[in-house]
Amino acid sequence: MDDELFNTLPNRLAREIDVPSALFIWLHPGDYREITAGTQAEANLDYNTFEGPDPWLAQGTDDKVGTGVFRLSNYVSPQELEESEMFNEFITKNRLDRYWCLGLLQGTRDGRVATAFHKGKTAGDFTDTELSLINRHVEDLGRLHAIRRELHRASIREIAAADRSLLDDAPIFELDHQGRLLRMNGKAERLFKLHPLLAVDSKRTLRVQGTGQSAFHLTAGKATAARKSEAGAMDLAQTRASDGRIIPRLRLNFLPRTDGGRKVLVIATTEFTDGMQDLFDSPQERILLTPRERDVLHGLIRGLRRDQLGHDLDLAMPTIDLHSANLRRKLGARTIAEAVAIALKLGLI
């Protein structure tokens, strides 16, 4: 189950059932989404921007875990798909051959993993025969994902600094010049599990999901430059943890280390002295949405525009905007797409 083998599996599955696209989408600790392996890989990084409005992931609910393969068209009409931001700004933009979709949700010790198969628009929806073929592989896929997740878990635990050589006053990650996570202290491990934007891939590369990805990569690169390293910092906006609690705005400080190779310490701090400990000590928070806020949220997940929402709910546009602003505030999100993603992660739908 090494990286090379794992990364070839979607292509093998796609060839076996004669479809252009197959992918594995993981929900790791911290409940962040990541395409771990998939065909048409050149578009995978761009996908992170569109995971919130993805009508396929919107149907990735707990009640479907362990129930076998299902057609997306049972839940989302072709018209809704074609009107979605996902289709117009991601699939069409990247010239991907994805339209009809089969989904499969399975559970692992640390959460869910989704497997998706896609056909092109002119190929027609998946047949009962094709569903039966894929369902024969469900148990094998479940074992594969469980094994892969345990390997990932073991890899993370190996790099926790048990010898306390990294102080535990603040979360500290130690990276090499390629961004690979060498060590982290106990608070860093806790922050990693809570923060939805912190991710570690199968190569143990630490990164920040979403719009902060480029800044993180650039700042870490400067701190580990071969000729002249340079300290730096970047901010992560306030957001919601995977269990609902508010994570305050964080500053990631990059401190170069030249002993034993090109390394950098990434130290997370907050504006207030006790802010980090307050985060870890704070209880899980219950988020309460009004019925109208839920109506608006459901419409946004379906990809409806503001005017369509107003028409369907018989509400004026300023009222729609007010409910949208309340959703962003309650979910700790900066954008509606981020609010939808957080709502899905917290199971508020």
Automatic annotation (TrEMBL):
Top-level lineage group: Bacteria
Pfam families the UniProt entry points to: GerE
Sequence ranges assigned to domain HTH luxR-type in this UniProt record: 282-347
Keyword annotations of the record: DNA-binding, Transcription, Transcription regulation
Keyword Nucleotide-binding: no
InterPro entries assigned to the protein according to its UniProt record, in alphabetical order: Sig_transdc_resp-reg_C-effctor (IPR016032), Tscrpt_reg_LuxR_C (IPR000792), WH-like_DNA-bd_sf (IPR036388)
Descriptive protein name: LuxR C-terminal-related transcriptional regulator
